[in-house]
């Protein structure tokens, strides 16, 4: 869920433009009581676009911050839409990439203050499933998770799983449909990133030899692409018969197209 908050008439006009890009979003113009409304939306896990002064956003959200792994993404914009600033959860919550998308739509300047601002990230999706899971269920979970992370399918480099799923028809057919490479890894390889998992399942370990397929595959897959450590930007999400997680890694070098701000 995206909530757009505006405090001025000019900001309200901008908010309506932004809402057209995400029709399912909610627009609040001068909500009352302001602090309680914004804080509750944040605590509900809603991603926020706040068209207001940075100081207002900071003072409003400061009392309800948890940590970068749980806080939803927050973008702050000036009322004229000249600047887009990812305020919270830039990496883990996907605010940096979300902000990049919005800045592109508005022809605005993206202002990144987190680490690695000039590197082009590489995104990898990790998935697991019960044997015989349908392509439809896999596709629905995949696209749902992309939406939660503020990503599009075009941003995903590859899709990964454990090697016992190398012949999983649902994965193979789905990856062919979205034109993504499907790559699998051994339990031994996936266990090299077990310290980074958000949760560990002893049951899954007894069955397949790793503590979590989706997160392990996403982390190892992203790392394999760039040769540098990866981080989860979306922890494991589940449907009835499948799991999905998204990880990101940065290349060692600075691509030419990202050498200028």
TrEMBL record:
Gene3D superfamilies: 3.40.50.11220, CobE/GbiG C-terminal domain. It holds the Pfam family CbiG_N. Residues 124-247 form the CobE/GbiG C-terminal domain. Residues 37-115 form the Cobalamin synthesis G N-terminal domain. It comes from the Bacteria. InterPro entries: CbiG_hydrolase (IPR052553), CbiG_N (IPR021744), CobE/GbiG_C (IPR002750), CobE/GbiG_C_sf (IPR036518), GbiG_N_sf (IPR038029). SUPFAM superfamilies: CbiG N-terminal domain-like, CobE/GbiG C-terminal domain-like. GO terms for biological process: cobalamin biosynthetic process. This is Cobalamin biosynthesis protein CbiG.
């Amino acid at each position: 869920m995206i909530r757009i908050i505006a405090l001025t008439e000019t900001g309200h006009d901008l908010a309506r433009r932004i809402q057209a890009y995400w029709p399912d979003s909610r627009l609040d113009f001068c909500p009352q009581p302001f602090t309680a409304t914004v804080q509750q939306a944040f605590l509900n896990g809603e991603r926020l676009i706040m068209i207001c002064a940075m100081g207002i956003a900071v003072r409003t959200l400061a009392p309800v911050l948890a940590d970068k792994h749980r806080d939803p993404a927050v973008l702050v914009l000036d009322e004229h839409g000249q600047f887009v600033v990812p305020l919270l959860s830039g990496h883990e919550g996907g605010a940096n990439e979300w902000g990049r998308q919005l800045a592109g739509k508005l022809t605005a300047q993206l202002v990144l203050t987190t680490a690695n601002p000039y590197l082009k990230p590489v995104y990898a999706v990790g998935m697991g499933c019960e044997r015989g899971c349908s392509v439809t269920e896999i596709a629905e979970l995949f696209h749902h998770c992309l939406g939660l992370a503020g990503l599009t399918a075009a941003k995903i480099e590859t899709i990964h799983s454990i090697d016992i799923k190398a012949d999983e028809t649902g994965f193979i057919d789905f990856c062919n449909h979205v034109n993504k490479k499907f790559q699998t890894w051994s339990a031994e390889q996936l266990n090299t990133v077990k310290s980074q998992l958000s949760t560990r399942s002893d049951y899954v370990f007894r069955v397949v030899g790793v503590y979590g397929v989706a997160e392990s595959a996403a982390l190892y897959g992203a790392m394999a692409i760039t040769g540098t450590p990866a981080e989860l930007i979306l922890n494991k999400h589940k449907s009835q018969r499948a799991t999905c997680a998204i990880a990101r890694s940065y290349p060692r070098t600075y691509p030419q197209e990202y050498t200028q701000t």
